[in-house]
Amino acid sequence: MTDLAPFEGLLAEYFEISRGELAAKSVSDPYGSVHVDVGIIRQEVRRSDFLVSGLVYDVATGTVEVVIPPTA
Predict the structure, then answer these.
(1) What is the pLDDT averaged over residues 30-54?
(2) pLDDT the model gives residue 1
(3) CA 46, CA 16: separation in Å to the nearest integer?
(4) 20 to 30 A Cα–Cα from 8, which one of 25, 26, 50, 64?
(5) Contact yes or no for 54/68 (Cβ under 8 A)
(6) Helices in the chain by DSSP H: which ranges?
(7) Which of 71, 1, 62 is nearest to 31 (CA)?
(8) What count of other Cβ atoms lies within 10 Å of the Cβ of residue 52?
(9) φ, ψ dihedrals at 19, nearest 5°
(10) What pLDDT, in 10s, does the model give residues 43-71?
């Protein structure tokens, strides 16, 4: 997604939002984006038997970093 950050029109269309709302998606910040996405998932899935976590995968090194640990 970070490669698409300069193409605001395409991103806004993809997310079905206005260009002004793109900043809230944190497209150019993988860690911020994980926080946004996990927040949305937590709002939509309200079941105690699901664990939600947020991870960032580094394509250069192959490492995975836990940004938000698993929580119900």
Answers:
(1) 91
(2) 67
(3) 24
(4) 64
(5) yes
(6) 8-15, 30-44
(7) 1
(8) 15
(9) -60, -35
(10) 998 888 889 999 999 999 999 999 999 98
* Residue 30 contacts residue 46 (beta carbons within 8 Å): no
CA angle 56, 54, 8 (to 5 degrees): 65
Tell the burial category of 8 from Cβ atoms under 10 Å away from its Cβ (0-12, 13-18, 19+). Answer: middle
The pTM for the full model equals 0.78
The answer to whether residues 54 and 35 touch, using CB atoms and an 8 Å cutoff, is: yes
- Looking at the predicted structure, is the pLDDT value of residue 72 above 90? no
- Quick one: CA dihedral 35, 62, 10, 14, positive or negative? negative
Examine the pLDDT at 32 and tell me if it is beyond 90. yes
State which amino acid sits at residue 14: Y
